[in-house]
Amino acid sequence: MPTLKKRFPKPSDQPVEESSVLRRSLMIGVILAVLLAVAGMAAYLTRPEAPEPQSGGHPQSAASPHSPTPQPRASEAVAAPPRTDDPVTFAKAATKALWTYDTQRFSRSEHLAGLERWMTGEKKYADWKSVSGEVPGKALWSRMHDNHQHATAKVSEGRFPEAFKTALSQDPGGITQAYVYAVTVTGKQSLAWKGSGAGAEPRSTTLAVQCRPDHDCALSGVLPEVAP
């Protein structure tokens, strides 16, 4: 998917960007402490800093007991997150939400607003940039809209990567600061567009999912590479 051109910050943007860098650094440190050798985690260190989400996070997150009411169109654009404390179950549902879109019925901003409802409300563990980066850019979304393109997804498997399970067995207490789990999900995305065009492709992704005790899971981010 094409990415948006980086906006050069104005002087007034600097405090926000510094906060984003600090938040990302904290999140990276916590996940690295647990994942250790998970493939692709080093890429987090060189990715651009993430902008803050426009709205609150997951309604059941420990840090967001009072999230704002979602926009009606946004709630239709993306399915609501499930109420579960199982990271694999949540990751499979989140992956389906990430791979499903309808450019004809909804705008890109509505789709993004719908995805924001899946995010953890703990900002220092929320990598919104990695999630929004899974969505087609503005120009591409516009062309897809003209072609009536939409996508559906079928998830076949969700599991903890082997490196994550090994790291967790070696240091069971390492996860207790943030409770962020790595989950690799596989499945298939099907595309359709006007003129009876259609296609499908197998896909896989690794998500970072936060599941604190006594709280529903929430999305923390999407890893830059799939962890086996």
Automatic annotation (TrEMBL):
Keywords: Membrane, Transmembrane, Transmembrane helix. Residues 49-86 are annotated as: Disordered. Residues 57-66 have a biased composition (Polar residues). The chain crosses the membrane at residues 21-45. This is Uncharacterized protein.
